[in-house]
Design brief:
10 helices, binds 5'-O-[(R)-(carboxyoxy)(hydroxy)phosphoryl]adenosine, alpha/beta, 38% helix, five-stranded mixed sheet, binds zinc ion, 11 strands, 348 residues
Length: 348
Amino acid sequence: MPAILAIESTCDETAAAVVVDGTLVRSNVVASQAAIHAKFHGVVPEIAGRAHIENILPVLKEALEQADMTLAQVDAVAVAYRPGLIGSLLIGVTAAKTLAWAAAKPLIGVDHVQAHLYSVMLQSQGERPTEPVQVVFPAVGLVCSGGHTALYRLDDWTDIRLIGSTLDDAVGEAYDKVSAILAQGYPGGPILDRLARQGDPKAVHFPRTLLGRDSLDFSFSGLKTAVLYHVRGVPGKNRPPRERVVVGKELADIAASFQAACVEVLTVKLKRAAKQSGARCILIGGGVSANNALRAAMQKFPLPVYFPRLEYCTDNAAMSAGLAAVLFQQRQFSSLSLDAITHSQITR
Ligand code: KG4
Ligand code: ZN
């Protein structure tokens, strides 16, 4: 299997990585823009695009340096060219095309969502995997992040079908918005995850939106609004006279109760999807797959469940480099006319 240099710039992380043999991560450099977007409690696309331009070359240089390789030594250049913010994607795609052309290397465009599913396969250099990752197909995959909450049936790493997705907010987006409602920082996921450890998940009963009996779709906007109304009161009904700041035990209880609702919805949908697909294992990727309560809940799942190592949950380029090795083996190369595309190639 080849050594692949990959670039990630789909949203607000500028990243580059070198992965050997599809699984062994030689370097994984991520320049996060979280601090820049924090005051807006979400990603501002124009700011993200400009930051990618500033970060891309230093990040690429560091990824090759850390891998102790030159561009001439890699077998291909990969890039996450979809889905994402167009102004962000364009920077990574342009950089990858330029490197591939200049070094006469094959170019491999990968789907970012597909790469999140593949991230469970990655191993860090010098560390032994904690348990063998033996993905058996068909598998059900869940990508849960700030931009996506979707379920997939995988018959192979490149034979994937969308079987459910969110009708409104992504679960990570709900974490980020609830964190803002609670006057906490951005990104909200890790903050609420930490606060929830001190809280009672049964303190407040927030709604679990499961939609129809067999539905594999998601909806998190009602849950987000329920937290808003719980904190600030219902407009025209019991709105408190002044904005209330929630602190201490109450804050921890709300975080834990919100998290319990998220985790229950995700696990119920995974059970449904596994049953409907005859799945033999479960793959979970994306920023929210770092969540402690989700990981704990899935320990009781009746099938093998694979999560990525923590450093490969949020956006990174190693997952794209790993998936690109599979495409390399299949000779699925892209032409230099590769274009950035805002939506995923995986459809129902
Ligand atoms: O995969 P990612 O870096 O970007 C997207 O593709 O969207 O995911 C970022 C999202 C954010 O919404 C963040 O709040 C959430 O993942 N997140 C978490 C945790 N760590 C990150 N959500 C819940 N628990 C966590 N521990
Ligand atoms: Zn992502």
